[in-house]
């Protein structure tokens, strides 16, 4: 029986054309992260499941993770996210590293998803994190990196927006103003996290089940109505949370000075689930009506190293998946045309005896850093140009019987259509034309 | 209890310094492959185990593979090699692709190895393959790519050699000259594959167990003594295998014309195990006495698509792992110093009020494609230069109280030690100096 030619469910084959798109996505990520001095790292594909259990909720461990027991009885998982690995690595070196520590990575991750638009089982994710930055400068810088990244893809505030909150504000509302128990607070986080996905009646029902006082309920609903940074500021000051208000205002001021303001909107429902965040949290949303989705999320966390018994080291980071990013760029027509590769020259010969001279020329041009495609057998004149197009070359070299008799080549520039006859050994002139 | 900070057994954490080395290895691989017009592809991390069973021996499937059953009852494995995925992908598109098809990939692979020098559980491997090349031009080109790759790392024939054979020769010796049964031929392949690892007595013992005629045994031992391309040619001609001899000589001639001869040595024991190869097979060996190992292996195969019921499409390829490559470059001192990253400028300020001007300058320089590291708080003059060194910058910008009072920066070139005072808003002059 013949084998199945399709990729495993929820994963992708990257044929050269698809791979060029991925390479483009990654090259902009790398360029942007490096423009801020972030250094690339990577970790293993497998980690012990303990690591994910310590950091994440049980749902992820039980249902969404590719886990198995290895031959040495270790219970391991294919990494579903990078943060636990990052924490493990930073825990090894943070003592002797100068701060801030700026790291990025673009790992492949696997989750046991039901495949659908924007969701696959294997995806890649840019992770940018900064550790040990003073005050809220890490938050400011991470937002800058994320915005610069989107701008480097050609996007602007017509294409995306950043919805932002501060977990310190949420905590102060729940714990200080509403005086909730830990369990009530946990349930309110879940309600807030769902608030945009369900209707008002459902929210009222869920809130009523938390058993808040009337006063606390009122505070909760007025919190949910906050829409602008000014709203937040007034709300916190009315409730005498001046320190939290001031810290947040300082942060907002700093983002405005860096012209990030046009991208940022306050949103009380952004809390990033029950995750490990403790400060600013944000999500980047596509503004396109056909793709109204979160593209990217991140925030500040104070205690990521705790699970390794290390002293707290404040960090801020974000993650951006390749699938949602590609959808975003496609829907806004921001992806360059990458149908064909890019090469410098296609070297062809029209008579068998041209092989040696062709291969020699190809070899010499490669030593000069040109990308050279050779035909490995004689090809007819009329086949040369369709091949040249598929290979994305700028130049074609031809050797018919006339040229071969005189040790010449015809060198054609496919953009200008200029064609020149050159001595096949006159490397200097050939290079000069290729570089022009 | 605190969690373990170490990576899973046999895998590696790539801290920024390690990652720079990996990135360097990969960048030379990519540059070399692309200089021959090879196009990058990638496949999924997981494949169904059936695929590996169809292609590989049972040993690999049973003992060396990371396999498990997914939640949908699919028996899958983390890819231990790339060739089956490559075959699956080529089977999907080869009909409508123009030939030769030139592809490369640098996937991460996992095998359940006992970790030791040169062997880890997760490694990366360059795979270069060409499909549908005429005659033996695919073999010639793949050897060229492999040699060019090593040369691009700065290696030459003092550092490595290529041991080479032709499975067509081996088959003709075993089947035509020695008239062995399929089972005898299989056992002889195993003996040849081991010949360099065991002593003469062990070989004699193993051969005697194959039950060959005296005449066949003599042919086998004279085959094993072949040392040069001329030896092979004479041997085949004595035994009237002229067609096979001529095809091989033609191939050898072609490699000599391309100056590959200095790297190539005939070796009758190179057969690449019981693998799927059908033509030229080769292994690249480190010549260093401390690292006398195969770095890379490859060859030509005729029937890789058979398992998908596709028509035969001849291919040639090789694989090169990152661990053995790194050992090779280290033992020959060919690795560049990558201890520090490379950045353009470190922007610092020595008084708190310098923050805004610093961040603004950083932002503008990033838009001009410079790699800019900022200090996010005031740092003392004496801390600036140690930081600059760690960040691998060429320039440092300083703003003390004098400069801040006048909206100036001190821009210092760390190579020439030249220092200039510039207006912080005079971006044009700053850029000119950074680009000089």
List its salient traits.
homodimer, 436 residues, alpha+beta, BirA Bifunctional Protein, domain 2, Rossmann fold, 3 domains, nine-stranded mixed sheet, five-stranded mixed sheet, 16 helices
List the helices and strands and how they pair.
The structure is a homodimer of 436-residue chains.
Chain A: H1 16-35, E1 39-40, E2 46-48, H2 49-55, H3 58-64, E3 67-69, E4 75-78, H4 83-93, E5 101-105, E6 108-110, E7 122-131, H5 137-152, E8 160-166, H6 167-177, H7 182-194, H8 200-208, H9 214-224, H10 229-238, H11 242-257, E9 264-266, E10 280-286, E11 294-301, E12 315-321, H12 322-331, E13 343-347, H13 355-367, E14 372-374, H14 381-391, E15 393-398, H15 401-405, E16 408-413, E17 419-423, H16 427-435
Provide structural commentary.
- The structure is a homodimer of 436-residue chains.
- The first copy, chain A, is an alpha+beta fold and 436 residues long.
- Chain A folds into three domains: 15-152 and 300-326, Bira Bifunctional Protein, Domain 2 (BirA Bifunctional Protein, domain 2, 2-Layer Sandwich), CATH 3.30.930; 160-286, Bira Bifunctional Protein, Domain 2 (BirA Bifunctional Protein, domain 2, 2-Layer Sandwich); 343-435, Rossmann fold (3-Layer(aba) Sandwich), CATH 3.40.50.800.
- Chain A is built from 16 helices and 17 strands.
- The first copy, chain A, has helices at residues 16-35, 49-55, 58-64, 83-93, 137-152, 167-177, 182-194, 200-208, 214-224, 229-238, 242-257, 322-331, 355-367, 381-391, 401-405, 427-435, and strands spanning 39-40, 46-48, 67-69, 75-78, 101-105, 108-110, 122-131, 160-166, 264-266, 280-286, 294-301, 315-321, 343-347, 372-374, 393-398, 408-413, 419-423.
- In chain A, the strands form three sheets. In chain A, strands 1, 5, 6, 7, 8, 9, 10, 11 and 12 form a nine-stranded mixed β-sheet that branches.
- In chain A, α1 (16-35) packs antiparallel against α5 (137-152) and α10 (229-238) packs antiparallel against α11 (242-257).
- Chain A starts with 15 loop residues before the first helix and ends with a helix.
- The model of chain A has no long low-confidence stretch (mean pLDDT 94).
């Amino acid at each position: 029986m013949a084998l199945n030619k399709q990729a495993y469910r929820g994963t992708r084959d990257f044929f050269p054309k698809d791979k060029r798109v991925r390479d483009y996505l990654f090259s902009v990520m790398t360029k942007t992260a490096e423009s801020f001095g972030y250094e690339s790292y990577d970790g293993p594909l497998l980690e012990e499941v303990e690591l994910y259990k310590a950091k994440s909720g049980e749902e992820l461990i039980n249902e969404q993770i590719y886990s198995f027991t290895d031959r040495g009885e270790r219970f391991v998982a294919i990494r579903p996210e990078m943060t636990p690995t990052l924490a493990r690595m930073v825990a090894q070196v943070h003592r002797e590293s100068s701060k801030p520590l700026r790291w990025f990575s673009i790992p492949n991750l696997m989750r046991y998803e039901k495949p659908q638009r924007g969701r696959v089982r294997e995806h890649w994710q840019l992770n940018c994190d900064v550790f040990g930055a003073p005050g809220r400068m890490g938050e400011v810088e991470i937002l800058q990196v994320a915005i610069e990244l989107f701008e480097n893809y050609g996007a602007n505030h017509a294409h995306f927006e950043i919805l932002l909150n501060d977990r310190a504000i949420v905590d102060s509302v729940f714990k200080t103003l509403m005086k909730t128990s830990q369990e009530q607070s946990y349930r309110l986080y879940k309600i807030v996290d769902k608030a945009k996905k369900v209707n008002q009646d459902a929210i009222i029902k869920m809130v009523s089940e938390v058993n808040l006082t009337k006063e606390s309920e009122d505070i909760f609903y007025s919190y949910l109505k906050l829409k602008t940074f000014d709203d937040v500021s007034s709300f916190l000051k009315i409730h005498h949370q001046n320190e939290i208000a001031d810290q947040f205002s300082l942060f907002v001021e700093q983002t405005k000075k860096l012209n990030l303001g046009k991208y940022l909107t306050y949103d009380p429902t952004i809390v990033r689930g029950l995750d490990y965040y403790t400060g600013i949290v944000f999500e980047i949303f596509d503004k396109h009506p056909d793709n109204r989705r979160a593209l990217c999320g991140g925030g500040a966390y104070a205690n990521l190293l705790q699970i390794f018994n290390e002293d707290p080291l404040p960090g801020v980071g974000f993650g951006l998946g390749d699938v949602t990013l590609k959808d975003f760029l496609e829907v806004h027509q921001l992806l360059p045309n990458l149908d064909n590769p890019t090469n410098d020259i296609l070297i062809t010969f029209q008579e068998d005896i041209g092989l040696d001279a062709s291969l020699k020329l190809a070899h010499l041009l490669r030593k000069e850093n040109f990308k050279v495609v050779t035909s490995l057998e004689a090809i007819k004149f009329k086949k040369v140009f369709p091949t040249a197009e598929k290979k994305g070359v700028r130049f074609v070299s031809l050797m018919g019987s006339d040229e071969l008799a005189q040790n010449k080549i015809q060198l054609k520039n496919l953009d200008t259509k200029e064609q020149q006859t050159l001595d096949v050994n006159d490397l200097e002139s050939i290079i000069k034309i290729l570089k022009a």
